[in-house]
Amino acid sequence: ESGIDMPTVNTLVVDRADLLGLGQMHQLRGRVGRAGQRAYAYLFVPPDRSLSEEAYERLRTIGESTELGSGFRIAMRDLEIRGAGNLLGTGQSGHIAAVGYDLYCQMVNEAVDELVGRTPEVAHEIRVEIPVDAHLPDDYVSRDDLRMEAYRKLGTAGSSPGPEAVEAVRAEWEDRYGPLPMPVERLVAVARLKSLCVERGITEVVVARGPGLGGPEHLARCSPVDLPLSRQTRVARLHRHARYKQGPRQLHLPLHTGTDVPDLATQLSELLVDLVPVTQLTDGPVAS
């Protein structure tokens, strides 16, 4: 804390801001203005000196972080710039921004597993190819870093068995950014589909155009799928164009398009829940 408190002042001028840390600048600019008083903080740097990369990143971060509750984001960015420190001492590891904080934590966990002799989980990729327009539009999440964070969080949720984690991310987005536009709803639907594949041991889903001529507009191929005889009978009875190939362990399901039917990912998710039993996995797959 700087010890400065000027509630009636609305302008702060800081010279040589390049010499201050992120936490110092954040604390200083918070000394002026209050909830009912708009304030301004001007950070000056010498025009005849080149800023170091770290100083530039600090100033850029403080300039971008102006919304309410930005302190935690600033702290995380400061951690990436300066490093998380030596786990066994006082030295700084430095520049974990080269790999990112989340990947850095993953690497530390893997190193600890190797040291203690713990067997790491075997990662299986889930391949999902589905022709839908699914993305986060710029006008929904305007900042690049927040958009990347949102993609990462949804990808992590999609690698968890069951759709609960995906639904939690969807609720968070709706609360933070507002109602989800259609491309975002489709993106969530694809992540939900991946989570259902995880708990059923499915590692590949490919949706392609159907044959037409009275048949379904699209066909989905899911593999590997192990269906007991009773489920195979149910598939043949309820879906005329569906078929199960026991040799390659592939399930082919019909999908339709139109204004009165759900999107392709949602249709396929409903069919998997109805037809494919949940598999207890010992080493669950993760989304690619």
What does it look like?
Mean pLDDT is 80; it is low at 87-92 and 280-288. It contains nine helices and eight strands. With 288 residues, the protein is α/β, with parallel strands linked by helices. It folds into three domains: 11-80, 3-Layer(aba) Sandwich (Rossmann fold), CATH 3.40.50.300; 83-120, no CATH class; 125-287, Aspartate Aminotransferase, domain 1 (Alpha-Beta Complex). It has helices spanning 22-29, 53-64, 71-82, 101-116, 144-158, 164-177, 182-198, 229-238, 264-275, and strands spanning 11-14, 40-43, 125-129, 204-209, 218-223, 243-245, 250-255, 286-287. Helix 5 runs antiparallel to helix 6 (164-177) and helix 5 runs parallel beside helix 7. Strand 6 and strand 7 (250-255) form a beta hairpin.
Keywords for this entry:
9 helices; 3 domains; alpha/beta; Aspartate Aminotransferase, domain 1; 12% strand; two-stranded parallel ribbon; Rossmann fold; 288 residues; disordered C terminus
Q: Tell the overall outline.
A: elongated
Share of helical residues: 40-55%
CATH topology of the largest domain: Aspartate Aminotransferase, domain 1
The class by helix and strand makeup works out as: alpha/beta
Broad CATH class of the largest domain: Alpha Beta
From the 3D coordinates, which CATH architecture of the largest domain would you assign?
A: Alpha-Beta Complex
Biggest sheet: strand arrangement:
6-7-5-4-3-8
Give the low-pLDDT segments: 87-92, 280-288
- Element string (H = helix, E = strand): EHEHHHEHHHEEHEEHE
- On the 0 to 100 scale, the average pLDDT is 80
β content, as a range?
5-15%
Count of separate structural domains: 3
How many helical elements? Answer: 9
- The CATH homologous superfamily of the largest domain corresponds to Transcription-repair-coupling factor, D7 domain
Give the tally of β-strands: 8
Main β sheet profile: 6 strands, mixed
- N/C terminus separation: 44 Å
**Compute the gyration radius: what is it?**
26 Å
